[in-house]
Amino acid sequence: MMRPAARKLLTVAALVGAAGAASAAVAPPATADESLTPKEVLAVMVKRRVEIRKLCWEDSKQKADASVRVDFVVAQTGVVTEATPREVSGPPSISECVVAEVKRTTFPTSEKGGRFRWPFIFKGP
């Protein structure tokens, strides 16, 4: 039998594929009873990904290929209380900008918030 957290991750993978967001992924929450759903996170982050790409990469003087996976914590209020860069490649200014923008992101309120992971991959033409 599949654990609830694994089932949630599979649901997110299906949503990511359906939304055409190949570089999007969300980690399973810390516990199986988190009330901020992967679908809600996906809806917010797909929109924010476009904004963050423009702010942190397209408008950057350093148009180098870059990637950063951001692990973040969302409080019950929908505010990101923690954002940590992981697996960083490329100019530090780009990953620092991405982390700062993830911290500015707001999500729907929920009973427990949650822990999530989102990769950002920037490649030139």
N- to C-terminal distance: 44 Å
Strand-residue proportion = 15-25%
CATH class: Alpha Beta
Largest sheet: 3 strands, antiparallel
What is the CATH architecture assignment?
2-Layer Sandwich
Overall structural domain count: 1
Question: How is this structure best summarized?
Answer:
This protein has three helices and three strands. By secondary structure, the protein is α+β, with helices and mostly antiparallel strands.
Description:
- With 125 residues, the chain is of the alpha+beta class.
- It has a single domain (4-122), classed as TolA/TonB C-terminal domain, CATH 3.30.2420.
- The chain is 40% helix and 22% strand.
- It has helices at 4-19, 38-58, 92-104; strands spanning 66-74, 80-89, 114-122.
- A 3-stranded antiparallel β-sheet has the order 2-1-3, with helices on one face.
- Helix 2 (38-58) packs across helix 3 (92-104).
Q: How are the secondary structure elements laid out?
A:
Elements: H1 4-19, H2 38-58, E1 66-74, E2 80-89, H3 92-104, E3 114-122
Antiparallel strand pairs: 1-2, 1-3
Helix pairs in contact: 2-3
Summary tags:
125 residues; alpha+beta; TolA/TonB C-terminal domain; three-stranded antiparallel sheet; 3 strands; disordered N terminus
